[in-house]
Amino acid sequence: MTIADKVLNKLDFPKILTCLAEYCILPRAKELALDLKPFVDYQSVRRALQETEEGKILLRGNPLFSVRGAKEIRSYIERCMRGGLIQGEELLEIRDTLRVGRKIKQLLLEAKEDFPELKEIVVVIEPQKELEAEISRCISEDGKVVDNASPMLAELRRSLNRLQQRIRESLEGILRNATYQKMLQDSLITQRSDRYVLPIKQEYRTAFPGIVHDQSASGATLFIEPLPVVHLGNELREVILKEQREVQRILQMLSFQIEARGDALAELHEALGKLDLVVAKAHLSEAMNAGAPELVLGQQVKLVQARHPLIAGKVVPLTLELGIDFDTLVITGPNTGGKTVALKVVGLMAVMTQSGLHIPAESDSRMGVFTQIFADIGDEQSVEQSLSTFSGHMKNIVEIINQSDGRSLILLDELGAGTDPTEGAALAMGILTELHERGCRTISTTHYGALKTFAYETPRVKNASVEFDLETLRPTYRLLIGIPGKSNAFTIAGRLGLSEQVLQKANTFVTEREMQVADLIEDLGETRREIELEKHLARTGRQAVEKKSKALEEKTIRLDEEYEELMELAKEEARELIRKAKREADQLIVELKEALKKDNKQQQDIEKARQGFRCILSELENGRQVKRLGSELTANQIMLGQTVQLTKNKLKGQVLKLPNSNGEVLVQAGIMKVMVPLAELKLAQEEKKIPPKYSKEMNIGLQKAEGMRSEIDLRGMLVEEGTYALDKFLDDAILGGIGLVYVIHGKGTGAMRAGIQDFLRGHPHVRSFRIGEYGEGDSGVTVVELK
Predict the structure, then answer these.
(1) How far apart are CA 232 and CA 195, in angstroms?
(2) Cα separation, 200 vs 220, whole angstroms
(3) At what angle do helices 262-287 and 42-61 cross, to 10 degrees?
(4) Closest by alpha carbon to 765, among 719, 733, 718, 721?
(5) What is the C-alpha separation between 121 and 751, in angstroms, rounded?
(6) How many CB atoms lie within 10 A of CB 709?
(7) What are the start-end ranges of the E strands in 105-251?
(8) Burial letters 109-132, b for 16+ CB under 10 A, else e
(9) Alpha carbons 204 and 48: distance in angstroms, whole number
(10) Residue 93: closest CA among 106, 76, 79
(11) Which long-range contacts (CB under 8 A, 24 or more apart) does 425-432 make?
């Protein structure tokens, strides 16, 4: 069971297929696109839609994916199967197609994403790597058989080159011979009929020994093969014939190999054509901003903001349901209001879905599968068949009634038109009743007012109308479900200039009941518009909230990821500092052992200190946080002038301002005034240190490290003097375990600032630095981070 071609033509489906074919690369894929027909069973439709969805996912990950490089090789395969010969360039096209098929199959099978339908297409591809290699070995990229295709061909071509060289040498000797120079028309060697000849003047024909092979158009020049090279030319001709026979043998051998694999190659080419079609459907989906609707088992249609893909410019989207709360929809309204377009959109969306094409509608659209789709749209009159408009429509409707069932979608335009309005309305109601009782999903457009009452009184039949703007006298093309259309004839006539007197007379011919119905319809229309406006505002608000919520969620995830990265980086830096300190400590311990090896007690103290150091390192490596000295401060513990310590860089400073609403404290640290979070401060306290019994030299070094400051003032110094002092200061800071120091200097771009920059850039202890970012008055400060 298939959907008739005339229905597809009325729904403009061939135009969609033409657009689809433009995205295809292979001629076979274009054929498949133009011959695409809607499926009528659920599983086939599901697979076709899944193929297109997988194609879009594949293109998102690999936008350049295509079957480009594959060629149309069906005619070559058919020729081989009939025992024909394949030429060199044709063999290269076969090789390229085999290569594309092999690589695409490998790509899909190894892809991280799951492409079950695409893999099902390429599973039939049998890689022919040996045949690819054999063609590449025998055929050059310009389509010629290469010398190394066979040992015999290589020997023949070497012989050919040797003979050609001997002939040229002989002819060049004749050209240089003074005896023959006056006989030559030109001093050049040419060929006629694959024989090497010289251009000789006509008057020396008998004087020049040789065989005439050709003459010029004027007859003044004869092309003569000299006798000394005739036998060489004969040998050359024999070698050429042997070489041609060997080339033919090689091509025949390759053709036999293709013939033996003919079925596999045909399946590979067909699989590439199908895959090319899937990629084309994915490209078409992207071009139309389309997506796959939810596929349901019943015969349902739910279109949300659907757009006709062939209408350019600003398009009013269509929202419509059928087969959910009602099975038959009667659309009324003025001409050119969009009724017929609505019919075509519904039919086209159904046909595209069942063909595996995505539809230009919102993602919450739903579509069922219809075994038959019927459409009676447009003028059906025929001069050849003596059919009027009414007769043409009736002929179609008779066919529809005879073939339709509960799984059919029926689209009827201007049902009952072209005859007496009373009889036409009665006939339309009879047809709709018959289709409705069969369970068909039917949409019909009409101008008959009686059908509005029929829709109200019949269960699961719904009225609808296309909206008309009375201010502009133009249709808005919006479809209103549940509201019957109003002709608005009197209003339009009045706005167009018809006199009030005529309108009043016309009103006298309208019954009071008809006026009441018209007013009721107008009230219903206003109520519906208000409801639609409220729904639109609610939907817009909900979408805005969802968008903001999604953005916040993504931002939270991103911040969490950045936090984890920063924490891991900080831990790694801390571990690196500990490892560096461990190496330096180990070196100091070795030196201490050498100096104090006679003192066993001191040796034991050193080993004990080393074990404690190793415990600290182990805790850091396992990611455990070392407990900070001092307790965290609260806002109540902070007092003006209090001495606090910055936990991040171990600087001490005085409190200038109490914590603000953000929990930040203004602290004077050296020459800097900084806002520091309360969590990064602790009370400064003097630690009681038990001096170890080191040697006098070690005690001096440790005392120096304890008194080490984190800043140096270079103001007033010359460049050489300043860099020398800075170098010594950085060495002391490294020994003292200080990671961040401050270099005070003059502001501006003077020699000292440039000298400091050059010095710090190449210093082995410096990780990074920032020049001139802090300071007050004439002073500038460079912040230096040490390794």
Answers:
(1) 10
(2) 9
(3) 80
(4) 733
(5) 73
(6) 14
(7) 190-192, 195-201, 210-215, 221-226
(8) eeeeeebebbeebbeebebbeebb
(9) 81
(10) 76
(11) 425/449, 425/450, 425/451, 426/450, 429/454, 431/397, 431/401, 432/328, 432/330, 432/461
Whole-angstrom Cα distance, residue 436 to residue 389? Answer: 24
Within 13 Å of residue 202, how many CA atoms lie on the same side as its CB?
7
Residue in the structure block whose two tokens are 């270099």? 743
Taking the CA of residue 699 as centre, how many other CA atoms within 13 Å lie in the half-sphere pointing to its CB? 8
User: 152 is written with which tokens?
Assistant: 């015999």
563, with CB counted inside 10 A (0-12, 13-18, 19+), is exposed
Tell me, rounded to whole angstroms, the distance of Cα 620 from its chain centroid: 44
Burial of residue 748 (CB within 10 Å: 0-12, 13-18, 19+) is: exposed
Residues of the chain under the 70 pLDDT cut: 1, 336, 379-389, 470-471, 473, 486-489, 492, 510-526, 528-529, 592-593, 595-632, 649, 671, 685-708, 747-750, 771-779
Quickly tell me which residue has 């070698």 as its tokens: 239
For strands 441-446 and 408-412, give the pairing: parallel
Neighbours of 330 (CB within 10 A): 29
What would the pLDDT profile of 463-520 be if each residue is shown by its tens digit?
888 877 766 767 777 888 887 776 666 776 777 788 888 878 887 776 565 555 566 6
Q: CB of 94 within 8 A of CB of 69? A: no
Please name which of 331, 376, 360 lies closest in space to residue 478, comparing C-alpha atoms: 331
DSSP string, 485-515: ----HHHHHHHTT--HHHHHHHHTTS-HHHH
State the DSSP code for 102. H
What span, in angstroms and rounded, lies between the C-alpha atoms of 252 and 545?
71
CA angle 528-529-533, nearest 5°?
120
Would you state the pLDDT for residue 487?
A: 62
**Amino acid type, 358:** H
Q: Which residues contact 132 (CB under 8 A, 6 or more apart)?
A: 95, 98, 99, 102
The tokens 């030319």 sit on which residue? Answer: 233
Closest listed residue to residue 300, CA positions, set 141, 437, 406 = 406
Single-letter amino acid, residue 634 = T
CA distance 20 to 747: 69
Q: How far apart are CA 138 and CA 135, in angstroms?
A: 5
| Per-residue DSSP letter, 326 | -
Name beta bridge partners: 455: none
Per-residue pLDDT at 777: 54
Residue 485 C-alpha from the chain's centroid: 45
Distances in whole angstroms, Cα of residue 472 to Cα of each of 358, 464, 476: 36, 22, 10
Tell me which DSSP letter residue 736 carries: T
Largest CA distance in the chain: 133
Which residue type is seen at 513?
A: R
pLDDT digits (tens, 9 = 90+) for 73-108: 999 999 999 989 999 999 999 999 999 999 999 999
CA 607 – CA 451 distance, rounded (Å): 103
CA distance 472 to 683: 77
**Sequence-separated (6 or more) residues with CB below 8 Å from residue 438:** 404, 405, 406, 408
First to last CA, the chain: 79
CB-based contact 265:98 (threshold 8 Å): yes
Per-residue model confidence (pLDDT) at position 605: 60
Tokens 């159904």, residue located: 350
Structure tokens at 99: 């290569």
